Amino acid sequence: MSNGGKTPAMIRHVEAGQLCCDPVWEAAYERFETPEEEIAKFIKRLRKFGVDQLDKQSSVIELFCGRGGGLVALQRLGFTNVEGVDLSDTLLESYRGPAQLHLADCRSLPMSDATYDIAIVQGGLHHLPNLPDDLNESLSETRRILKPGGRLYVIEPWMTPFLRIAHAITDQPIVRKLYAKGDALATMTEHESETYFQWLGMPDVLMQSFSRYFDTVQCDMSWGKLAYVGKPR
Ligand SMILES: C[S@@+](CC[C@H](N)C(=O)[O-])C[C@H]1O[C@@H](n2cnc3c(N)ncnc32)[C@H](O)[C@@H]1O
């Protein structure tokens, strides 16, 4: 990742035995997009949310940050006070940059109350195994670490006609053979299928969880994605 070449400063809040990771899923995730493609996608998403218009001194935490492409995107948009949390040390170790990293479980965050102005989640909540309990814990913890008046920005997969068609296409063996990106996506979907389809199958329950902890500022469900902005209740 061409973001300064600094090795990550990682605080380990969980023991190695508590880690959750699937090497096949992680390899497919690495194949799906190059880091630069991923960073460009994140910058586009953040701009669409209007995050680029916010105070660049804001304290920002990206939850479920994976290998940290979103942290690089925030850095490139000018944010200087950025932290990331993920449960995979392998993915966190591939991040290069100045953000403070935390190896921790987003259902039980090690940060103090009312610490951050902005929390961001890009595609992590659908990895939670027990819904809606794990989502409630993650959202409750996110609300706790946000300052009053802070904001939560979420992008997650959402079952829309577009996503149904995308699955139907990438499931075809011929497509998987000819299209490396489609194969990587289908491999990721297979390896996260239990949590992924559980997430896609209960939209009303999920939205109730969001409403329990956050007031909705923006909510868009289109093109296979939920784009949600909330403020702590
Ligand atoms: C689909 S990846 C998204 C990573 C990153 N946000 C991105 O878009 O590239 C989901 C991430 O959630 C992490 N994860 C899953 N369960 C977690 C938990 N309970 N706490 C923290 N991270 C978790 C995984 O290790 C993985 O990096």
TrEMBL record:
The record's listing under CDD domains reads: AdoMet_MTases
Q: Show the GO MF annotations.
A: demethylmenaquinone methyltransferase activity; S-adenosylmethionine-dependent methyltransferase activity
Answer whether the UniProt record assigns the keyword ATP-binding to this protein. Answer: no
- Highest taxon of the source? Bacteria
Q: Which Gene3D superfamilies match?
A: Vaccinia Virus protein VP39
Q: Where is the Methyltransferase type domain?
A: 65-154
What's in the keyword line of the UniProt record?
Methyltransferase, Transferase
Tell me a GO biological process for this protein: methylation
Protein EC? 2.1.1.163
Q: Where are the transmembrane segments?
A: none
Question: Looking at the keywords, is Methyltransferase present?
Answer: yes
**What is the designated name of this protein?**
Demethylmenaquinone methyltransferase
What is the source species? Rubripirellula tenax
Origin organism lineage: Bacteria, Pseudomonadati, Planctomycetota, Planctomycetia, Pirellulales
